[in-house]
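Throughout our pipeline, every protein is held as a single compact record rather than as scattered files. The record that follows is passed on verbatim for readers who wish to inspect the format.
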Amino acid sequence: ELPPSEFMQVADSTWLVLSVVSNGREPPGCQATGVTKIARSVIAPLAEHHVSVLMLSTYQTDFILVRERDLPVVIHTLAGEFDIYKEESGECVPVTCDDVSNGFLKPKPPASPTLHPVQSPQTRFCVLTVAPDTLPAIATMLIDVLFYSHSPSWDAATSSQDLDSITFFSFSLIEGYISIVMDAETQKRFPSDLLLTSSTGELWRMVRIGGQPLGFDECGIVAQIAEPLAAADISAYYISTFNFDHALVPEEGIAEVIQLLQQRQESGR
């Protein structure tokens, strides 16, 4: 319904959403959450089959977006590990490989993925949710932060290779559930009794992936971050955007995360 505009850029792909639901077979003692929880079982296999994904963590769960044209490869890749369902008229219907086998070609082994640079600003972030019935009470503040607050210019935000801080605010509304990521200073502008966070109230630090806009055709970007964090059992909250990817990790673990990613960068050279 959005009118065409010279200011709006639209990717030339239609994307479908995958949500991964645990069936209770996860080994005891596995504490990792977020993107690292599904790194080995979903993200790594899709990267190996040259499927580009967008990753969206929310306060409640995680979603993987895949291009509609890649769906046959996705089904064939994941069917051995997962029961796969599609939604039809509000009901979940089982999907088999036979349903999408028409035109399926086994992909060629992908070339070694590009190891993109990562940056870790000093900004501290909060991951929050809001009860839907209280949203009107903070609507004016949300609009001000999203559209009118001062932010650095594009050139200033992208030219520095060693960012001390980063302007980042994420708001998602999915099936009635609200997720917000904001820096700790911005959080102070909101009524504290309306913003809900985990019982620990932990703060998060960010790793931003990409020295320039990443595009959508390359695969393995999420895996570049998710796999080493999964191996170290470190939770991560991951948000893919039109230009860059962002992984948030608990503040106390940022030094270990940077070390892990630097080691991966050096081993890939």
